[in-house]
Structures
1.
Amino acid sequence: HAVNTLLQDGGFGPHLLCSLIGFRDAEGRALALVYLYKRGTFYPFAPLPGAAEKRDNQLELQVRGALGDDLRVEKDLSRWFPVWGAPGL
């Protein structure tokens, strides 16, 4: 958050697309919570382990349901862009 705030304060805010924080469960499955700056919303991104650019849609929808009361989750699923190879995943 601090880095993003510094970038925004430095005039780079319009150029920021998204930020993410990555998580791993006990089995090593990756999950990212992605924040879209221009929309002010979050969405989950869960790549399937061992699969070439395939997503765990069921997990993403479960996370949406779990966080929907606490965060502004992006309602338009077409805006849940994949972030393949992002640092932290």
Note: The mean pLDDT is 91.
2.
Amino acid sequence: PQGGIISPLLANVYLHYMDLKMEELIKEGKPIRKGNPEYGKAWRKNQHHRLGIDRDINQNPKPRVEYIRYADDFIIGIKGEYDKAEGIKNRVTQWLEQDLKLTISMNKSKIVKANKGTRFLSYMIKVNPTNKTRTGKSTKNSFNGKVQIQIPQAKAKEYGYEYNWLKGKVKHDEALADRDELEIIRTYQTIV
């Protein structure tokens, strides 16, 4: 039953097959790395950032895959080319439709560049490339990005108006009037 207490448990049991298939897919793309001699020379001269030399030589042509699932929502991160990401999306869709008899929401299922961001569990997740400054020059290292998790502004405003935080006041909640301070604090912490 959707929204029931047992729903997440049933989703976990049913989607365990998908978790196993994703583990296989992740193992396929695990990189076999060998040290890059060019990186070592540039690092000793402290020029690896400016020249944009990668530390390792990836000897596995398959894309790297990461996978996170919470109940029936999941996100797949792929480090690789667009056509390979499209192939992985098609494989996962096929598993879900043929093996598990589930349908995919095509408006939620899309391939997005990491720096553009995507919504997962109502949070915006994106990768911002770091800018490192060496000898007065700024170099963009897209492979060294930092993951950001952002609360959508509309959601933050909605909470702000609901609890009068945007006006500098907290909304009085009659149901909490007879509770002790610790319980009131815990209640408001779950909201934030």
Note: The longest strand covers residues 137-150.
3.
Amino acid sequence: MGDPCCLNSPTRVLSLSNERESWQLLTSLVSEVYYGFVGPISTVAVTVLFLIWTYIPEPWLHSVGITYYPSRYWAFAVPIFAMVTVVLAIGFYVGLNFMVTHPTSFNTMFDEYSREPTTFADMTRGKEQRIEPLSDIGRKTII
């Protein structure tokens, strides 16, 4: 039997806690491995079942013994609903960003990349003029 002072040693407690942490880490890794395996396999299985249900004629399904399934309307409607939902979500997101910024805020006109024009050439002078560098027209120039 071990020495009683060794059983109460802080090193012994530390080694027990390290073993417990490694066991918890191992169990969490095992569950992640299962999720990583089951996720793609179930996605492929559901996709194959969806395609079979969509493209196999009803008499063939009845001959196999499959008589209870959803209407074929949903094979067309659900993907359309999903695509419309994504488009509307993007539209609402952009709209909410426009609503957050005050209409008279200078942030709607200028940002850190705005540049004042180097010169403001009168467009009526001369027939040929050089193209001005790309820049933003300042408020003082317009007013």
Note: Residues 10-55 form the longest helix (46 residues).
4.
Amino acid sequence: MSKFEQFPEPEGRRDTNMEEKSVEELESLAGPYPSGPEYAEKEEKMSIEDVKSHPNFDEILQEKALEYLKNKDSDWFYSRFSGEVSSEGYLLDNDGNETNWLPSQNLGGPAYVEVIKKVRDALGKKDHAEEGNTE
């Protein structure tokens, strides 16, 4: 007896007869296949290179980064900064003094990726609006 036979899989936990299922059954297990306008919209999103080379990238990056810090990391953010930015875009500390930190410089890893996705979405919507394709 192998060590795997000593502890059999509980009933109903895993379907071992996947090859016997029809295409329709397999598709229903996988959930809805992405199709239609929402799928096409995802394929039309800008590449990261296009996003970073866009003339409004820096402005929207700082805007979305500030929004992220205020809403998703507010305890940490407000313990160090007032939530306002100077005319040059630098964060103000709690005493109202300009720091040498841009909002985007306070993001790391997953937070930065999330903000870049929001920037890409905002730039894509802005480009569609400029073309006359308002949503």
Note: Residues 17 and 68 are 46 Å apart (CA to CA).
